[in-house]
Amino acid sequence: MELVPPLDNPKKEQHILLQIAEPTKEEVKSPYEELCSNLTSLAAYTKELQTQAHLIHLNYEAANFLEVHQFLKDQYEAHLEQFDTLSELVRAMDHLMPMCDCGLRDSLPQGCFQRVSSYEPRQQLSTYYQNLEDLVDMSRKVNCMAEQCGELGVANYLSDLMTVLAKSAWMVKATLRNCASS
Questions:
Q1: 82 Cβ contact list (under 8 Å, min separation 6)
Q2: In the chain, what is the straight-line distance between the N-terminal and C-terminal CA atoms, in Å?
Q3: Which of 24, 153, 158, 144 is nearest to 93 (CA)?
Q4: Radius of gyration of the chain from its Cα atoms, rounded to whole angstroms
């Protein structure tokens, strides 16, 4: 609390106490802390994608099963590597990662990750495709933040990540188009 001197009022001499609320640490984040928070969100998203790709890999049933099965195996292995690299970038910036999957999920913005709601092959791949595209968009925004913070190594990795994710999204979209024509 801070003591504020009284106004010039000859009738009353009283001190007015003002209570000034200081912003909490969570309310005021430096650009660097915001970058770490967003990198944690990207890591959490890649972990969700890893699980999703793995489950589609197991549950997908269609004429192109073998090709999709192998593609998704490569994808969930890549997503694990992406999760690890993003997490290591956060740790290299001297910030901690959550200690459990609940903590990871809490770091995701509400409603940003689409869940597969059907065993229908086209719906499974469409959902995965949308999540890949969304991760590219999220990565683009975090990439700009990294550049503004002077974290060029992080920005470089995110550029490479966006390239890989965009290629994967293209391959899924081409598979979906092929499914529509057969």
A1: 43, 46, 161, 164
A2: 73
A3: 153
A4: 24
